[in-house]
Each structure stands twice: as C-alpha cells, then as structure tokens.
Amino acid sequence: MPQIATYKQLLLGSLLLCLSLTALAQQTPPTRCGVATGFPPYQFSLNGETTGFDADVARLIFKRLSLPFQFRQQAWDLVFNELRFGDIEVIAGMEVNALRAKFFEFTQPYYHRYDVIFILEDNQQITKLEDLHNEFVSGDRHSYIETHWKELGTLYDFRIIGTQSKEKSMQMLKEGRIQAAIMPKAVGFYLARQMGIKVKILDNPDPGSPVAFAVKRGNQALLTQIDTALGILIAEGEIQRLYEKWFPEQEVNFGHKQH
C-alpha cells in the first residue's frame, strides 16, 4: 500500500507541475522577434507567412526554449528602431558592427553575409568599378560597401539612390533604371533567379559580416537564453542542416567566413 500511495503522489505531483507550466506559459507574453520584409532568402514573406533562413532559425530557438513568440515583420529601418526603443525584444539575423553595438548586444554569430555589387550579366559598358562613377547605383547604407566608400572618400563618385526593398533594387536593375545594385550576395542571386534575369558580381570587397541575434543593451537574461539555445543547435548540427536547406550550393563554417 505505501508503494501505491507513493506512485499516486508522484503522478499527482507531475500532473500539477504540468498544469503549472502550462499556466505559466499562458501567462507569459510572447517574445516579439523582429524580422525584415523583402530580404530573401534570409527574411521575407511568402503567401502571408514569415519565412526565410533567419526566421526558421528563430523558430528553432524559441521551440528549444519552450517560449511563446511572435514575429514582427516590416521594413528594416522600422524593425531596427522598434528594438532600439523597446517595442520588440529581439531581432533575428542582424549583422554585427561597432555602430550597432552601441545600442544592442549580440549572441554568437551563426553565419556571415557578404555585400557585393551586382550588374546585369550582359552589361558590356561596365567592366570595372570606375565605370560606375556618376552612374545610378541602388544603395544599402547599412552595408560594408557604402561604409568602405565613405572611409575612402569615394562615396559621392556614385549616384546612390535608396529603395524600399532589395526586390525593388533588383527590379530597377532589370529595367535598366540603375546600372548596379548593392546587396548581400545570396539575396542578389536569389532575386535574380526569381525574376528570370542573369547578373554578375562587379566587385566583392567585403570580408564578411558576422550575423547574430540582437537584443537591446541590458537585456542580459534574454540574450543568455537565446545564445545558449543557439549554441546547442549549432553543436547538434541543426543550424547547418537548415543552412544547407536554404543554401544547398554553399557551405557554412561557424566562426569563419561564409556567404
């Protein structure tokens, strides 16, 4: 009889614990995770659903943490400022640099991105960077390339214009409204395939930017949770398998440069 009583007590205790955890999860507000629109294959919307490599990594992390979350998806500048001013808690897939480190803290990186300059493959007039002087180029003011040009003092040799999205930039390149477009390598080739055009890289000076999850400075608890889960997923090979799904032609090597 004592053994039966002990078993019933354990069963009751387990049931109460499950009910408590369920109630706690229901009471916990979802973590708001910012992602950008128009940044395929990393972050974009397909048939109304948030998708892309970074979005899938976020899903893996919050599933591992058993934390409720919701995506907040909109233009990059809005996502950036929402985290800066505390309207969301985290951003997935942010490139790490010194300027952003003033406002945010970052997890370990889980891949690198490379910014390049794309032109149409059949463009015979543009063969070197100097040929773009005084030509229209769609810019990316957060990119390594524009920062590099500022440091060199050559930024104003180009007629830089901003667009609402990378899709818009690639569409303008397709239509001949610009001569070149600055964007991450994987994004440019993805969009070109989607639009049925052929592009080539004119210049690729970027040594690669590490990409991580970002939280507002001071939110150490959430940063530690996400970073721990991310580290486990990397060690288990889950992030690499996901990377191979989205980028089957490329390799990923954590802690080193990747595309």
TrEMBL record:
The keyword Calcium does not apply. Pfam families: SBP_bac_3. It comes from the Bacteria. Keywords: Signal. InterPro entries: Solute-binding_3/MltF_N. Coiled coil: none annotated. Residues 30-250 form the Solute-binding protein family 3/N-terminal domain. Residues 1-25 form the signal peptide. CDD domains: PBP2_HisK. Belongs to the bacterial solute-binding protein 3 family. This is Transporter substrate-binding domain-containing protein. The lineage of its organism: Bacteria, Pseudomonadati, Pseudomonadota, Gammaproteobacteria, Alteromonadales.
